[in-house]
Amino acid sequence: MKYLLLAACIGSLFAESPSYTLKGQIQGFGNGWVYLYHQQREKDPQDSVMAKNGQFQFRGVAESPEFCLLAIKNKSGKKEFRTGFFLEARAMLLTAKKDSMQNAVIKGSPTQDEYIQYQESQKALEMLSGKLDALYNAAEAKKDEHQLDSIKKAYTELSERQQQAIKEYTIAHPASYVAAYEIYANFSYNPDAVILKDIYGRLDTSVQKGFFGKKIKETLDAAELTAIGNPAPDFTLNDVDGRPVSLSSLKGQYVLVDFWASWCGPCRAENPAVVKAYSQFHGKGFTIMGVSLDDKKDKWIEAIKKDQLNWAQVSDLKGWQNSAANLYGIKGIPMNFLLDKDGKILAKGLRGEDLEKKLAEVIQ
Asked: What's the whole-model pTM score?
């Protein structure tokens, strides 16, 4: 969001840039590099300064509140993002301990204060999420399918409660950057276009024009483009041998467009169910186009062989910048779209046995 508008008086042309100062103290850190990652910057997103006795200072310009990540290096020398917070054009102070950066305290930012208050209001739901995670891991270890199905339903109900809380918060705080951030963070994976359009429309125009407002709009546009019943957007990517393969070339079959990556643990855990569905229905006119968000060809090919993904596999090896993933608005993987023989979207986000059940329903 720009602060200097045409409607502003001439005097504003001589106003100083909206600058921030972030001073910090990290106990137990000593001397070392501190990294500030600006997610909203397309160019040069990372700043770094050398801390002395755990003390550091960043200076810069923030035209609107932005959600940043602060990192220090661990013992192995790897950068780890340890805490996220809202940065804005003010004098701010961060205090933390080296081994518990996630508990950093940030003062001086009203937006950060609002963010903390909202998080506190959602603690009960966060605690429930943690309990479900523990139950899911235990059930998965025992291969208890009945319990897993029950937990998945509980996850769905929890997600609905979280989204309802965000909607209510947005209605009460339409000019809130925190609201926009929470919408983007919680409505971007397999979004319902109707629901997302409604909550996006409740944001003030100024917030819609901000970073997260624009990201929500991009997600909404992709959700409307890939709504159930619409023709699936066509794309062409190279297979493992460098040969171009287009999605439209698979018309005449039921097609699962499956977004995944070798480095994605949930994707690899989901692959056995996809393999099973392919084995059961391939002879009945069903096929798959796997779209990988890998950026290393050797890792991609290794995963294909190990997981026995014996169907068309394509990628441009650009990671999250994969052109097909951007076209379909992919914000998280695994994610898939089931198409009918005419290339229209029948369903999306089918996980586990849901894929097999849907195929049994549509393929006679």
From this structure: 0.84
Residue with tokens 């894929």: 355
Complete DSSP assignment for 209-274: TSHHHHHHHHHHHHHHHT-TTSBPPP-EEEBTTS-EEEGGGGTTSEEEEEEE-TT-HHHHHHHHHH
Write the Ramachandran bin of 317: left for phi over 0, alpha for psi from -120 to 50, otherwise beta. Answer: left
Report the interhelical angle of 177-187 vs 145-172 (nearest 10°).
160
Chain Cα centroid distance, residue 140: 24
Neighbouring-strand partners of residue 239: 314
Show the domains of the chain with their CATH numbers.
Answer: 15-102 (2.60.40.2190), 122-225 (no CATH), 236-362 (3.40.30.10)
Rounded CA gap, 162 and 152, in Å?
15
- DSSP-derived secondary structure letter, 136: H
> What are the Cα distances from residue 122, in Å, to 117, 134, 230, 244?
9, 19, 36, 47
The candidate with the shortest Cα–Cα distance to 336, out of 264, 239, 280, 283, is 264
Q: Peptide bond preceding 334: is omega within 30 degrees of 0, i.e. cis? A: yes
Render pLDDT for 192-209 as a digit per residue (tens, 0 to 9).
999 999 999 999 999 999
Confidence at residue 4, expressed as pLDDT on a 0 to 100 scale = 30
